[in-house]
């Protein structure tokens, strides 16, 4: 890698600062020139404008597409569109693939149909399939008509698979060879390429009908005698391959488990139809992680941080409405014990502790369960075993930390009975949190729903209402 090609992870922050500085300087100078009363004012203003545009455009031309995507996501809408206009048209397609879904929508909205068509035509079939759902139907139709028969078939195939399947992630850019040729022939064949497909660490050995016969690693190709045939050095056994209908999560786990860089994708008759690369898998894992984080907080989709107020409201209102209902229920639980709280004011000071610790414990449990489900480590028949284990953890934590809080309550309010109630309430609420933390995601899985969506909201609501009811109920029974 040359000096110019080297990149450091922190460089993107520096690039962002530079672009922001150029934008700021552009606005400042234009405002000053605009206010000045001088001969040939329009000419001067136009020259200054072109000078700053040229400087900013030259800076953008030097950046990687992923860095430009990052910069666009970090800019307010007006500056984002200004910068987007300066990006060279031939780079539009690859940048649209790099930006988040929310930002991509804002960029596509300002592009003309012919610009969208040009951007789409610059992409491979698998990349176009990723972008297609965000493009107007008439643009997709025009692009489809412009493809050759092989491209049409690949695009049709890529768009036919579910979003979370291997088929939706695979690409069609790969190198296949026959087993009855020598390594020297393979090397000559590879030298005809301008460049190999990204992440090519192995060649797929196929017969005349494209059935997978084995794997020829680049290492074996380079270190063996060129006069040997492919069949003599290729690997036939323990070939990790996938079918297009396989679950993408399982494929990602296989890539992690076996340290794969690429793997063939085969149909039901073992014909090679594409390949899966580590880049595809990393992108999928990142998107799934982002989705899980957002879903955990009750957000329906990724949100552009500079989106309009109304768009943000639409994205957030659903689970806030649920939270409002659960908060009202919790307030009614407290209201039912107003008499007890009036007689023993200490209850008002202590009950948030019970609810807060319960919520935190429940979130720990549900996070572990959701992660295990995502990793494919939890089946429905494991529910009772997991529940037993989490109840054991909750019981120990409840007795240890509940006893500590009980002693503190006894010391603060000079009441041993209040301390015992505090210990009991803490233990019971942690047991409730553990039960909910296991059952909520398991039930959502059985119902065919995403176990992560709204999990934090639900567990917090349950431990708040349950904690208040348990603590105030015990206090009413044994202290008043």
TrEMBL record:
<keyword id="KW-0813">Transport</keyword>
<feature type="transmembrane region" description="Helical">
    <location>
        <begin position="452"/>
        <end position="479"/>
    </location>
</feature>
<dbReference type="InterPro" id="IPR000644">
    <property type="entry name" value="CBS_dom"/>
</dbReference>
<keyword id="KW-0812">Transmembrane</keyword>
<feature type="transmembrane region" description="Helical">
    <location>
        <begin position="317"/>
        <end position="337"/>
    </location>
</feature>
<dbReference type="Pfam" id="PF01769">
    <property type="entry name" value="MgtE"/>
</dbReference>
<dbReference type="GO" id="GO:0046872">
    <property type="term" value="F:metal ion binding"/>
</dbReference>
<dbReference type="GO" id="GO:0005886">
    <property type="term" value="C:plasma membrane"/>
</dbReference>
<keyword id="KW-0129">CBS domain</keyword>
<dbReference type="InterPro" id="IPR046342">
    <property type="entry name" value="CBS_dom_sf"/>
</dbReference>
<feature type="domain" description="CBS">
    <location>
        <begin position="170"/>
        <end position="232"/>
    </location>
</feature>
<dbReference type="InterPro" id="IPR006668">
    <property type="entry name" value="Mg_transptr_MgtE_intracell_dom"/>
</dbReference>
<feature type="transmembrane region" description="Helical">
    <location>
        <begin position="419"/>
        <end position="440"/>
    </location>
</feature>
<dbReference type="Pfam" id="PF00571">
    <property type="entry name" value="CBS"/>
</dbReference>
<comment type="subunit">
    <text>Homodimer.</text>
</comment>
<protein>
    <recommendedName>
        <fullName>Magnesium transporter MgtE</fullName>
    </recommendedName>
</protein>
<keyword id="KW-1133">Transmembrane helix</keyword>
<dbReference type="Pfam" id="PF03448">
    <property type="entry name" value="MgtE_N"/>
</dbReference>
<keyword id="KW-0472">Membrane</keyword>
<feature type="transmembrane region" description="Helical">
    <location>
        <begin position="391"/>
        <end position="413"/>
    </location>
</feature>
<keyword id="KW-1003">Cell membrane</keyword>
<comment type="similarity">
    <text>Belongs to the SLC41A transporter family.</text>
</comment>
<dbReference type="GO" id="GO:0015095">
    <property type="term" value="F:magnesium ion transmembrane transporter activity"/>
</dbReference>
<dbReference type="InterPro" id="IPR006669">
    <property type="entry name" value="MgtE_transporter"/>
</dbReference>
<keyword id="KW-0460">Magnesium</keyword>
<dbReference type="InterPro" id="IPR036739">
    <property type="entry name" value="SLC41_membr_dom_sf"/>
</dbReference>
<comment type="function">
    <text>Acts as a magnesium transporter.</text>
</comment>
<feature type="domain" description="CBS">
    <location>
        <begin position="234"/>
        <end position="293"/>
    </location>
</feature>
<keyword id="KW-0479">Metal-binding</keyword>
<dbReference type="InterPro" id="IPR006667">
    <property type="entry name" value="SLC41_membr_dom"/>
</dbReference>
<dbReference type="InterPro" id="IPR038076">
    <property type="entry name" value="MgtE_N_sf"/>
</dbReference>
